[in-house]
Design brief:
With about 130 residues, the chain is mainly α. The protein is built from one helix and no strands.
Length: about 130
């Protein structure tokens, strides 16, 4: 093909070439814009991912603190239960001792009463014997 031989064809070819150039430029700009948008989305995703990780770390820390408080409260409750059990045992032992002392005191009082009765009986018999003599 010799340029200029078919002027309308050359003009049409040039016009098509210009249109192709424009289409390429639009496509390149569209691709660049899409790449920019994709980069922005990726940056935003990274930012959100970091925020989520930070929130998760904070939440994990709060959970650890709560677990620590719970374990501490549980240990205190167990200590309190042990101490209460010890107090209950001491109270029972004191009650047992008190009852034993009451029984011994009652036995001693009964023994004293019997001794007194026996002493009175002896005295009465002695007086009877002296009267008979």
């Amino acid at each position: 093909h010799i340029p200029g031989q078919y002027p309308d064809t050359d003009a049409a070819r040039e016009k098509r070439e210009e249109e192709r150039q424009l289409l390429r430029q639009r496509l390149v700009r569209a691709n660049e814009k899409e790449a920019d948008t994709l980069r922005d989305v990726m940056k935003e995703n990274e930012k959100l991912k970091r925020q989520l990780e930070e929130q998760q770390e904070k939440q994990d820390e709060r959970i650890r603190e709560q677990e620590s408080k719970y374990e501490s409260m549980l240990a205190r409750a167990k200590d309190d239960m042990r101490a209460q059990h010890e107090l209950d045992l001491q109270r029972m032992n004191l009650e047992i001792d008190r009852r034993q002392l009451q029984m011994e005191s009652a036995r001693a009082a009964e023994g004293d009463r019997r001794d007194s009765e026996l002493e009175l009986e002896r005295e009465r018999l002695r007086q009877e014997l002296q009267r008979e003599k």
